[in-house]
Here is the input.
Amino acid sequence: MGIIVQKFGGTSVADAQKIHNVAKAAIREKEKGNDVVVIVSAMGHTTDLLIKLAQEVTVAPDSREMDMLLSTGEQVSIALLAMAIQAHGYKAISMNGQQVGIITENVHSKARIIDVKTDKLKKHLQEGEIIVVAGFQGVTQEGEITTLGRGGSDTSAVAIAAALHAERCDIYTDVEGVYTTDPRIVPKASKLDLISYEEMLELARVGANVLHPRSVETAKQFSVPMRVRSSFNLENEGTLILGADTMEIYKPVAGVAEDSSQVRILIGEVPDSPGTAAKVFSTLANNSISVDMIIQTFGKNEHTNDIAFTVDSKDLEQTLKLMEAVKKELGAKEITTDEDISKVSIVGAGMVDRPGIAAAMFKALADQNINIKMISTSEIKISCLVDKKSGKEAIKALCKEFALESEEVAVVKGDLPPV
Ligand code: ADP
Ligand code: ASP
Ligand code: MG
Here is the structure.
């Protein structure tokens, strides 16, 4: 038998009873003769509450100290889960990111994993222990604690599965699998039995937060078979994620997603000369700020352009600071910000070479009187920026347009995070 990696999210370990259920799910795999590594997130809404606490202490918490704080959430769950497994009579050991050797780059709050050491993991597996690892955290070569970004425990799980050449990586969560859209927005969204790495990666990147995008990227890179399934219904097979070449494509659009966490920044009237865009975007890249949509249009005055782009709202303050300096250096006229935006996207490998998909998307939005502020496309994705208040309505309209609903109402277990 092989190595099975299981990951349980916050809702799945929200209280003592649920932790016992997770212990039983781990033991079930062990009983089948597998070696088992379990990755867990912080209990319930712990991470949200820790962030709120930091914001009560200071408006601008230091990013290193934030990682010190947020990484504690997962440490609570691993100890409790190891205790629960032991209470059922099985051998278990908890390990944090540093103890395992989950090595990341030297960036706080959104570090990427660069290596996972396997010597200690293998030693404990050989001793017959179920290993419980803290998700979401890592350590730099210099020994600094880092975190991987919200939802990053999925990536911890897949990275460990890849390093151990695990047979499977099962992501247990509070819904029954991957749906055509968030079932909290469209309760009759269809559950997908299969989805390709490529489509899942795009869906995760454009806002389907059922999986952390880097977890899918890692699974694709190392061909880790991955399943999303319910921790409240262990019999359900959930959704299998695997390579596109093994699948037949039936529908042009596999899923739709909304991302309301972006902001749009416009730099008005920058000189129309070589190197201007390079200056703007290299400044952002050098500060680890990812840019999503970009549009450059002619400015109001001759020999100038307007450059608009979107970034995650968490990066807004730092982006504005950096862009003020760039504005001065380039002699641009103004910087404006639009926070009232939501990005809605359709994703599907089946849209390649199939004309009319973009037109159908724009028409579905127009029929709801939803104005499009920006458009971007890639081979298997089309995204439109709309007013924040229209985001959910747009998702519902797109589900209808591309026949993404079923007869059944999805089972959703977790409650929404506190505000
Ligand atoms: P966990 O704490 O287990 O990591 P998350 O909250 O990160 O759980 O992810 C599960 C949630 O993702 C679901 O409750 C659902 O609301 C949301 N979600 C968004 N898009 C989708 C989708 N396409 N399919 C399934 N769930 C989705
Ligand atoms: N606890 C972290 C979060 O809430 C990581 C995770 O759940 O994956 O974002
Ligand atoms: Mg998650």
The first strand starts at residue 3 and ends at 8.
